[in-house]
Amino acid sequence: MSLLLFLIISSNEDTNKWKRFHRGGIVRQPVTIKDVAQHAGCGVASVSRVLNDSGPSSADLRQRVIAAVDDLGFEFSEVGRSLQSSTTRTIGCVVPSLANPVYADAVQGAQETFRLAGYQTLLVCTNYDPEIETQAIRTLTAKQVDGFVLTVSDALASDGLKSIQNREIPHCLLFNMAPDDEQSWSVDDRSAAMAVADAFVEKGHRHVGFLALKFKSSDRARQRYQGFAEGCSRNGLKKPALLEIDEDSQNLTDLLNVFLQENPALTGIFASNDFLALATIRSARSLGLGVPEDLSIIGFDGIEVGTMVEPSLATIVTDPKMMGSGAARTVLSVIDGTPPPALPDPELSFSFRAGGSLAPPVAERADGEKAATLSPSNNPTKKNAKIQLERSK
């Protein structure tokens, strides 16, 4: 049987609302701005000026309009407001992952800043995949976000970033090195990585390596490697051995095993982020190696959990929440047409934190005479390891 629908006029002369009876329940139609105007005894344009704070209005008029809004339970239609103002009050936030606490902290900093300014954040994680990144940016652009805060795989080659630039959408990079005519809240990766090389040398290490996500997935990793290699060269060390892995690599222990067999004199590893550094410590222990007795490890980012493990993690400390907030303030300045906030001093964008994972190498390994002993079961061939390895020169 079809549903009967009856319409009656409310006896409430103030609201004069239509009511609908549906299986015995009464559902009131949404209150409109016209209802507010009628209740307040003024025109629709006057209500709009008061609620949008877009023009002059008397104290008496404002009081009547606000009282009418409260009495009727009126709520703005965000869709209607967006159509009227050509804005959505939303910001696209694109980051590689939230598994790494650095990005989670940065997103929190950006979100808090946008919320205080009346904007909502739409978050997308790209899993370090340039294709997902491009699609995510296109999707957010189609949703007509008012701006972007984003970390891309490669700021010099990102198709998504180029589309934002071509559309002249307000945006700010986060952690990427800024190309020409771009702003980015980022760490001085090159100088920070050189400081890591200095730390290794100070402890007496002469043969070191670098472990990172594949450079095509992270221009930050590439810049850190370049700075690390420059720091090693400056200190008279050979070019660091390089091990690149996929973000979702499940066989890090096997990859590390082969890497160490290919570089028997290696006594220290610089991991491009703390997440990788902690995973490397776990893999080293699975191979029967002591950290730092057999292998010293330094990370990058300074996540809090690095201070809670044993040994504590030696690392480069950054302030991702501040970076996220700064990037958000930069986007808001473009939207509002106000001067952008000053970028942090590159020399103050990081600091080195000593930790128990860094110690002097034992004499026999420092001289390259004896490599760590790995059990036969942990000795896969290079063919099965699937690594990208650049030998020390």
CATH top-level class of the largest domain: Alpha Beta
Mean pLDDT: 85
Low-confidence stretches: 1-27, 366-393
Number of helices: 14
Helix content: 25-40%
Overall description:
With 393 residues, this protein is an alpha/beta fold. It has 3 domains: 6-76, 434 Repressor (Amino-terminal Domain) (Orthogonal Bundle); 88-187 and 322-345, Rossmann fold; 189-318 and 350-390, Rossmann fold, CATH 3.40.50. 40% of the residues lie in helices and 17% in strands. It is built from 14 helices and 15 strands. The chain has helices spanning 33-40, 44-52, 59-72, 78-85, 101-116, 130-142, 159-167, 189-202, 219-234, 252-262, 274-286, 320-336, 363-366, 382-385, and strands at 6-9, 18-22, 25-28, 90-95, 120-125, 147-150, 171-174, 184-185, 208-213, 241-245, 268-271, 296-301, 314-317, 351-353, 388-390. Strands 14-13-12-11-9-10-15 form a 7-stranded mixed sheet, sandwiched between helices. It is elongated and about 90 Å long.
Summarize this structure as a short list of keywords or feature phrases:
393 residues, alpha/beta, 434 Repressor (Amino-terminal Domain), Rossmann fold, 7-stranded mixed sheet, 5-stranded parallel sheet, 15 strands, 17% strand, disordered C terminus, transcription cis-regulatory region binding
